[in-house]
Amino acid sequence: MSLTISGATRLYVLLGDPLDKARSPEHYNAVFAARGIDAVLVPMEVAPTAFEALITALKHVRNLDGLIITMPHKQAVLAHLDRLGDAAQRVGAANVARREADGSWFGDMYDGPGFVGGLRARGIAAEARRVYMVGCGGVARAMALALAELGVAQLRLHDLDARRAASLAETVRAQYPGVACDAGAADPAQFDLAINATPLGMRPGDPLPFDVTGLAPSTAVADVTTKPEITPLLAAARERGCPIATGRDMFEAQTLLAERLFGWSA
Amino acid sequence: MSLTISGATRLYVLLGDPLDKARSPEHYNAVFAARGIDAVLVPMEVAPTAFEALITALKHVRNLDGLIITMPHKQAVLAHLDRLGDAAQRVGAANVARREADGSWFGDMYDGPGFVGGLRARGIAAEARRVYMVGCGGVARAMALALAELGVAQLRLHDLDARRAASLAETVRAQYPGVACDAGAADPAQFDLAINATPLGMRPGDPLPFDVTGLAPSTAVADVTTKPEITPLLAAARERGCPIATGRDMFEAQTLLAERLFGWSA
Predict the structure, then answer these.
(1) pLDDT tens column, A20-44
(2) Which positions ≥6 away from B30 have C-beta within 8 Å?
(3) Could you give the angle at which helices B138-150 and B111-121 cross, rounded to 10 degrees?
(4) What is the pTM of this model?
């Protein structure tokens, strides 16, 4: 089936900046077309300075049922939501928002649960394991807190900006005192799972985000990049015999959570 | 081809209230799909109280290229446009708006030119003819001014609200002193073209908007209703041998004008 849009079609909006490489419009509109759901998701690229006025106005659009929020608006959206899921509360950010039957707005944050779901889809266990992660930006924050919630034994964080790594480690320890979380050197050896949460690997010629030569074949390696799906890091890890989880695994697990939230999937 | 929407797709928004019966989303999205244009038109149903804030915010959406405006926002949109076409200036309303290369907004009003284009498509001449029109609301205002611009000899207006008919007649006379325009009785006899610009005929059981028994077979009859396309009025007129023009003729002529404005058609 193909997507058709009438005056009665329900509307979902993707808010972010930039959006030209966003994958969710293609994904969700294919879901609507395949399942005969009379809805459409459209991108609206908007700068942070114009975000508040836009979301305030959009909430008055009668056929708008939900929002997908991506960078740089995931924190700013919180002020416009009436109720938050557990992950959104933990992270202080949301990337999905749904209009409830009473007109109020519920939001949640699926970056972390999506990452954990992607690992699970590949049969990679993180519970009670030692985890290394490089990159401590917004997505990494959501991932670190989801890994702590899952119950990893140890979480070592590294970032070129050492203060950012230390700050995220502190946040994780404060929320999960049982997880040994610290900031440390750029060395993934001696860990069960090594994660790249930086953009390195998106552009040809990027250096590897960490050295894989010291990794045991039992160490799993995960990456957040979706294009290319197999980054140079994942290719090198696979060559060593390491299990891998890709950015696409994370994306698919996230979209499944969103599809359930919006009632598009069982 | 089918419609596909990515993060880079250009956006057009239909603004109105209500929109559930609006035809333009289906029409324009079929045009995009058929011609491989990477654009989408989505409906946003918004009340007058929320219109100003929404259009102000939408103008900051970077991938928004244009608006289609329908009732009840056709007058309110003017305050948000930088430059107006002739018809929009005449009528004091707009139903299309385009973002220009310099970021400013141009708007125009195609209800009137669309009606005249629909007559032309059916080979019905209105130039130098005597025209009767029932209904003097917003769409009728645009039609009356387009007929006067075209150069009808006489324009007789009728409305259940006699003051509304008198007021529109005065507007037409003020702008086109050469056109004999007045408000008068509900009698379409002795005219070359009789027009229904009321909603009568949309619902089963509606009375005819005017009596056709006195019409000569040479009198053309036009209606603005698109669903059903052949209203009871048009069916009765056709039975008498009168030429007819339908609401769909008007809609198609209007959409062609909009397609040219937005560069979707040559």
Answers:
(1) 989 999 999 999 999 999 999 999 9
(2) none
(3) 60
(4) 0.94
- Closest of B147, B166, B177 to residue B87, by C-alpha: B147
Residue in B53, B54, B60 closest to A50 by CB: B60
Q: Could you tell me the domains of chain A?
A: 10-109 (3.40.50.10860), 112-250 (3.40.50.720)
Question: Kind of pairing, strands B64-69 and B10-16?
Answer: parallel
Question: Cβ B7–A43 below 8 Å, yes or no?
Answer: yes
Give the strand pairing for A244-245 and A180-183.
Answer: unpaired
Classify each residue of B230-246 as buried b or exposed e, where b means 16 or more C-beta atoms within 10 Å of its C-beta.
Answer: bbbbbebbeeeebbbbb
Residues of A in contact with B19 (CB under 8 A): 7-8, 63
Closest among B45, B43, B137 to B91, alpha carbons compared: B137
CA-CA distance, B51 to B40, in Å (whole number)?
Answer: 21
Q: Is the dihedral of CA B148, B169, B70, B84 positive or negative?
A: positive
b (16+ CB within 10 A) / e for A144-178: bbbbbbbebebbbbbbeeeebbbbbbebbbeebee
Here the ipTM equals 0.92
Chain A contact present for B57, CB below 8 A: yes
